[in-house]
Design brief:
Elements (H helix, E strand, L loop, with lengths): L1 H21 L13 H7 L5 E5 L3 H10 L5 E7 L7 H11 L7 E6 L3 E6 L7 E7 L7 H10 L4 E2 L1 H11 L23 E2 L1 H10 L8 E5 L2 E5 L8 H6 L3 E4 L22 E3 L4 E3 L13
Parallel strand pairs: 6-7
Antiparallel strand pairs: 1-2, 1-5, 2-3, 3-4, 5-10, 8-9, 11-12
Helix pairs in contact: 5-7
């Protein structure tokens, strides 16, 4: 009875802790020039969406990685895109009422690895990180890997270990050293968003940020521990393309920046739009 009561109290404390970490804070009033509807039409299965979230845990990841990208999700397409019937059943079990929508798989604090509708992130700052050279036959393998991770717990200790691993030893005593390389590294039972996605790509030997060594016969690739990956690594990787879908496409013969409908005497400081009397920032330069 005491053990059950203790476990109940621990579960209650962790649920409150998870709630505080996942709560949104300090959301900037900034307009991102991003065409979400166009992205929905052109996104492809196995694309990684990098998301700038504004939760407490997001702010911790932003501090640790020095990057705006604090969350990553894997786009898997629609239910009709999945050919394997067993995988379809798993999606139906976890997706519920939004199973017919465009879907992503992600690892969320307090929820674990779950399936979500793509529309969940329609108001977020997003970049697509697309594997540049991924073979068509490996796409369903990667998707299947992420689907089979559904239901895994979110590893809060993993996040804390990652912070301890990245910060220099002079800040944290050596006895607090990271346990990222311990506890069954090859068979993870808990996820964070980026490590789950890294595992999926490594399952087909697709490189993200490997260690590359030169030897007498050429080069050798050494896979990086997937538990060390953060969302920004998919931005930094030379094997992924960063794709943006702006509202206005500036191109020769199309919309020119000279023809944008600039508002004179106005300027945004992110929290409000202010008037600048006596100035005109949009005056066109004289034609030669």
């Amino acid at each position: 009875m005491n053990r059950r009561r203790r476990k109940s109290w621990l579960d209650y404390i962790f649920s409150k802790f998870n709630y505080r970490l996942s709560k949104k804070v300090n959301v900037p009033k900034r307009t991102y020039l991003y065409d979400f509807n166009r992205m929905k039409r052109e996104i492809k299965p196995a694309d990684v969406l990098l998301i700038e979230s504004h939760t407490r845990i997001g702010n911790i990841i932003r501090l640790v990685t020095d990057s705006p990208w604090t969350h990553a999700v894997m786009y898997i397409g629609k239910l009709a895109d999945i050919k394997d019937l067993n995988l379809r059943e798993m999606i139906l079990k976890h997706a519920g009422e939004f199973a017919s929508e465009q879907l992503v798989i992600e690892s969320i604090i307090g929820k674990g690895t779950i399936i979500s509708p793509l529309n969940k992130y329609k108001d977020n700052h997003i970049r697509i990180s697309r594997p540049s050279y991924l073979l068509a036959e490996d796409i369903p393998k990667i998707i299947a890997y992420t689907i089979n991770r559904l239901g895994s717990k979110y590893s809060l200790r993993h996040v804390l270990d990652l912070g301890r691993f990245i910060f220099p030893w002079r800040i944290f005593p050596r006895r607090w050293r990271s346990s990222l390389f311990q506890h069954n590294m090859q068979q993870p039972t808990e996820d964070i968003c980026s490590s789950m996605i890294a595992d999926a790509f490594l399952s087909v030997d697709y490189p993200i940020l490997p260690v590359i060594l030169k030897n007498k016969s050429g080069y050798e690739f050494i896979p990086r521990n997937p538990r060390l990956y953060t969302p920004s690594d998919f931005d930094f990787s030379p094997f992924f393309d960063i794709i943006k879908y702006p509202f206005f496409i500036l191109e020769k013969g199309g919309v020119s920046y000279r023809n944008l409908p600039w508002e004179p005497n106005l300027m945004s400081n992110d929290t409000e739009i202010i008037h600048i009397p006596g100035e005109n920032k949009t005056q066109k330069p004289p034609e030669n």
